[in-house]
Each structure stands twice: as C-alpha cells, then as structure tokens.
Request: fold
Amino acid sequence: MRVYLAISVLTLAAIVLLRRHVEVVTDAVWVRGTIVVGSATLMSVFAARTANGSKGAFRRLRVLSAVMVVAIVVIVAIPGMFPVWMKVDQAVCGVVLLGVVLVVNGKHLRAAFGER
Reply:
C-alpha cells in the first residue's frame, strides 16, 4: 500500500507543478489525482488496521482495492478522457493494486479472517 500511496502523492505533486500546462493538467486530472490520493490514504489505513486484525478493515480493503482496479481499467480504456501520462500513471497504480487484490483475496488471508 505504501507504493500505491507514494505513486499517488508523487502524481499529485506533478499535477501541482504542471498546473499551468492546461494541455497536460486538465480538470479531470485534478479530480482524479485528488481522488486517488484519498483512496490510497484510506487503503493504507485499512491495510494497517487489517495487519492489526480488524475484520472490517479487511473487508473494506478487499472491496476498495477491487473497485479501484475496475476504475483504473475504465480510465485507461476510454480514449481522450485523460492525457497519456495520466493513463500510464494509472496503469502502474492498477498493477500495484492488482497485486493487493490478489493477496487480500487469497486463501491464506481469507481463512485468517474467516471469509469465504
């Protein structure tokens, strides 16, 4: 989760630094960049609470990570919605989150939290 959060924060920093270049930092980029930092922060909190044994945090981490992967696939797939650099950034985030989805939906963690 730290990698996802770090990428997200760095992306938002890049957005701030490039804000005067409206061809690469659109309103959609601002909104998506902010949402991603928020979701990455939440997922980091959920991961920490999951590590401490919270079943509710485990469920939230499973759901939010899967939802974010689907959102990223849509963002990358829809032409013209975001600049190429943002799509590449989101694709990298998607790969990281896919790893999270695979781990939190694996038999070991589901069994540890009594999930099916």
Remarks:
- The helical segments are 2-17, 27-51, 55-77, 84-104, 107-112.
- The chain has a mean pLDDT of 95.
